[in-house]
Structure formats: C-alpha cells, structure tokens
Amino acid sequence: MNKSKKLDLVNSFFKYGSGFFIIPTIIELYKTQNAEGVSWIHVGFFSIWGVWNLYYFWNLNQKLSALANIFLILMNTTWLLMLLYYGW
Questions:
Q1: Which residue in 32, 35, 63, 65 has the most C-beta neighbors within 10 A?
Q2: What is the distance between the alpha carbons of residues 44 and 83, in angstroms, rounded to a whole number?
Q3: Closest among 57, 42, 46 to 19, alpha carbons compared
Q4: pLDDT for 32-74, tens place per residue?
C-alpha cells in the first residue's frame, strides 16, 4: 500500500469516528427534544465543510475519505436539522 492510500485510510477512520461520535448526541436530542443552549452555527459550519470535503477528497483521489465523509455529512446534517426543528 502506498503512502497516499495509507493516509486516505487513516483519514477515513477519523471521518467515520467523527460521525459515530455524533450519533449519541442525535439520540439524546431525539429523546429530550430540547435544543436549548446548543448553537446550530458550529454544526452548520461543519456540515458545509463536509460538503466541500466531499468534493476535495474525491478530486485528491481519496475515495475512502470521500465515502467516510458522506457518513459524517449525514450525521452532521441530521443533527443540524434536529437542532433547528427542536430549537425553534
């Protein structure tokens, strides 16, 4: 495995990990249906950044990172939509 593929593999591991760390927050928000005190701004920023990263990783030919990033985008966007729904 060449260096680029190893870096892609490691980066995809962190992307998937990030997405999985968001899941407990999504579950808790669903249970409480209370988004008081949680700002949507950082979640919105990371959701938009994720869309950019999808384009970026794909063009760097880092397919594993791009695929892992789709999972992260889905988790961030789910959380963002729930924050907006329960926060307003």
A1: 65
A2: 10
A3: 46
A4: 999 988 889 999 999 999 999 999 999 999 999 999 999 999 9
One DSSP character per residue, the chain reads --HHHHHHHHHHHHHHHHHHHHHHHHHHHHHH---TT--HHHHHHHHHHHHHHHHHHHHTT-HHHHHHHHHHHHHHHHHHHHHHHHH-
- With CA atoms as reference, report the closest residue to 50 among 26, 71, 20: 71
Full-model pTM? 0.90
Name the residue among 14, 15, 81 with its Cα closest to residue 43. 81
